[in-house]
Write a structure and sequence with these properties.
With 124 residues, the chain is an all-beta fold. Helix content is 0%, strand content 48%. The chain has no helices and eleven strands.
Length: 124
């Protein structure tokens, strides 16, 4: 089994930055995908960024392209999300998730393992 734990959330002013971390207690196979999703009150769950565990391939949601960067440290079994130029619309609970397979990587329904989430709040 894979257990995912997020950290790094908090409150920042618009234009600021945060770096989220997701550490897996179990091994993420190189043929898995893992990434970040978010959900704000009253909104549907949204794919933010996904990475192929065995390589550098990355997919980003349109709303975060150019501002967020996903990366991973396989030696530490950790996934990161660097969030720059944060906007109030980025306020949400951010989740880390892993999937064995997925036709569309930003589709949250593909994902088998989920972390508990970490709150990101961006104020004006």
């Amino acid at each position: 089994q894979v257990q995912l734990v997020e950290s790094g959330g908090g409150s920042v002013k618009a234009g600021g930055s945060l770096r989220l971390s997701c550490t897996a207690s179990g091994y993420i196979p190189s043929n898995y995908y893992w990434g970040w999703f978010r959900q704000a009150p009253g909104k549907e769950r949204e794919g933010v960024a996904v990475s192929y565990a065995g390589g550098s391939a990355e997919v980003y949601g349109d709303s975060v392209k150019g501002r967020f960067t996903i990366s991973q440290d396989n030696a530490k079994n950790t996934l990161y999300l660097q969030m720059n130029s944060l906007e109030t619309e980025d306020t949400a609970v951010y989740f880390c998730a892993a999937a064995r397979s997925c036709a569309y990587l930003l589709d949250s329904n593909c994902y088998d393992y989920w972390g508990q989430g970490t709150q990101v709040t961006v104020s004006s």
